[in-house]
Amino acid sequence: MASSARASSPPGIRPFQPPTAALLVYPATLIVGSLFSVLSPTAQGSRASAYGDPTTMTPTAGADAPVNYFARKNNIFNVYFVKIGWLWTTLAFTAILLGHSTYTAPSSQRPRRTGQALLRYALATLAWWLTTQWFFGPAIIDRSFVLTGGRCERVAPLAGDAGDGDDSPGLRTLFSAAACKAAGGAWHGGHDVSGHVFMLVLATAVLVFELGGVLGGADAGKGSEVGVGSWSRRFVVAVVGLSWWMLLMTAIWFHTWLEKLNGLLIALGTVYMVYILPRRVTPWRNVVGVPGV
């Protein structure tokens, strides 16, 4: 696996790449979180107090506040970190480009390495955009929800809407979670693939593979890394650490097992295409490169 990446490197270079087995941390995290949500009395009580249907995690109007802070969708980490998670991922990725000699030190390889790193980021961003934001209309996650029988239903009556009822045709024809929420409704009934799991797994994997590559790459250890590089690493590690924590919180408090699993599989499929497959397929490696090489 790593040998194919090494074979394409200049003599003497042994770039480090996280092993594929490291990706097992993600299913392990989801399993631990899901088991805790089932076995912990605190988790069960928090779900029961905030959700009318603990299977679909659909909020109940007027429900008591959840026992655990992280079970609240408006907790500060969810609102200002996860909801804009790709912005933090972009900032951390930029810190890698600006803070490590692989991309900053004068070298004949620097333009190629930088261009391939930006391409890998663009591919990951495209996967995130199509899955969670837009796919020729509603995003892939929203389309899957509607195709599996989901629809938008009114959480509470709005001014002037008396008589519409929960099955208002106007609400049922909304095809995106954002539009449904803006109209005062909530998703109900379909298979709601976990966008949080997808984004958090993809973001942390991208950053870990990129950081691991530059720390063990061709130019690792050069003096230019001191200062800016150490600050860059700390920032990236902080983003990865908080993302992993929020992944665990998502595993405990939100979505069904299958919805979390599908979010995980979509993310791992993207990681495989961008970071694992190039180790094995030389033509693809020549296009997207391998971090640090």
In terms of DSSP E residues, the strand content is under 5%
The average pLDDT score comes to 79
Strands ordered across the widest β-sheet: 1-2
Q: What share of the residues lie within helices? A: 55-70%
Low-confidence stretches: 1-13, 48-63, 158-167
Order of helices and strands: HHHEEHHHHHEHHEHHHH
Q: Which class best fits the helix and strand makeup?
A: mainly alpha
As a whole number of angstroms, the C-alpha radius of gyration is 22 Å
Question: What is the tally of beta strands?
Answer: 4
The oligomeric state of the chains shown is: single chain
Shape: globular
Q: Main β-sheet, in a few words?
A: 2 strands, antiparallel
Query: Number of helix segments?
Result: 14
Would you mind describing this structure in some detail?
- This protein has about 290 residues and is mainly alpha-helical.
- Helix content is about 60%, strand content about 5%.
- The chain is built from 14 helices and four strands.
- The protein has a two-stranded antiparallel sheet with strand order 1-2.
- Helix 5 runs antiparallel to helix 7, helix 7 (about 110-130) packs antiparallel against helix 11 (about 195-215) and helix 11 (about 195-215) runs parallel beside helix 13.
- The longest helix has 26 residues, at about 230-255.
- It is globular.
- Residues about 1-15, about 50-65 and about 160-165 have low confidence and may be disordered.
